[in-house]
Write a structure and sequence with these properties.
Helices cover 31% and strands 19% of the residues. It is an alpha/beta fold. Bound molecules: 2'-O-acetyl adenosine-5-diphosphoribose. The site of 2'-O-acetyl adenosine-5-diphosphoribose (OAD) has 27 residues, from helix 1.
């Protein structure tokens, strides 16, 4: 089976009702990113950060995968698929995708602020001040914040380097290192970008734009791949 690697971003979950980051005037659900998604924000106001992610978690639990997620899962019948997602929701998994790399972490995990190897599943939607790891330190969301290392980047780059087809769905391609993955994919393989607003990237051979929302764009792609 050919290997298909898909890089996804907030745009694929937009039709499930989850807000993207850069489509709302630089604010993310009313907050500046620096106030809620940086190590500095955590130092300054843990409760604000925890509340912010509790709200994100609650919304993600209420959301359902859309046709875009479902069609990506269906591709597994035809290709060996790996999804590299910048999203912290679990909609790819709930749509049936088996092989998902969460580059920016997961809303449904917490981790120790003392030992990053101590990671726990979050049941329900709340992580609160006073919730502690087994060594007694406060738990934080297991999310990669701005300014932090991206531990799964090496694995993502390796998988991308082996791709036969590379797909980008619903990401503005402005946040690095994730945005650089498209350049790690072998030159000349078919690459497709599905996004109603085509991102500004250097042209490459065999790069195709599908300027549609994720659900209809994935239908278009399905037809293209079949023909
Ligand atoms: P952005 O908000 O930067 O980009 C969302 C992209 O989705 C844009 O290119 C939109 O045009 C597109 N879009 C909007 N609606 C869509 C739809 N229905 N179907 C398809 N595409 C649609 O989100 P990301 O690129 O995911 O990081 O942002 C990257 C990272 O920046 C995030 O993972 C997050 C962040 O702020 C952290 O939290 C560390």
């Amino acid at each position: 089976m050919k290997k298909l690697v898909a890089l996804t971003g907030a745009g694929i979950s937009a039709e499930s009702g989850l807000a993207t980051f850069r489509d709302s005037g630089g604010l993310w659900e009313g907050h500046n990113v620096e106030d809620v998604a940086t190590p500095q924000a955590w130092q300054k106001n843990q409760k604000l950060v925890l509340d912010f992610y509790n709200e994100r978690r609650k919304k993600a639990l209420e959301a359902k995968p859309n046709r875009g997620h479902e069609l990506l899962a269906e591709l597994q019948h035809h290709f060996e698929v790996t999804i590299i997602t910048q999203n912290v929701d679990d909609l790819h998994e709930r749509a049936g995708s088996k092989n998902v790399i969460h580059l920016h972490g997961s809303l449904f995990e917490s981790r120790s602020t003392l030992d990053p190897a101590l990671v726990y599943k979050i049941n329900g939607w709340q992580l609160n001040p006073g919730d502690k790891c087994e060594r007694g330190s406060q738990l934080r969301p297991n999310i990669v914040w701005f300014g932090e290392m991206v531990p799964l980047m090496e694995q993502a780059a390796y998988v991308t380097s082996l791709a036969d087809i590379f797909l980008v769905v619903g990401t503005s391609l402005v946040v690095y290192p994730a945005a650089g993955l498209i350049h790690e994919a072998p030159r000349g393989i078919p690459k497709y970008i599905i996004d109603p607003k085509v991102p500004d990237i250097v042209p490459q051979p065999n790069l195709h734009f599908i300027a549609e929302k994720a659900s209809s764009g994935m239908e278009t792609l399905f037809r293209k791949l079949k023909s």
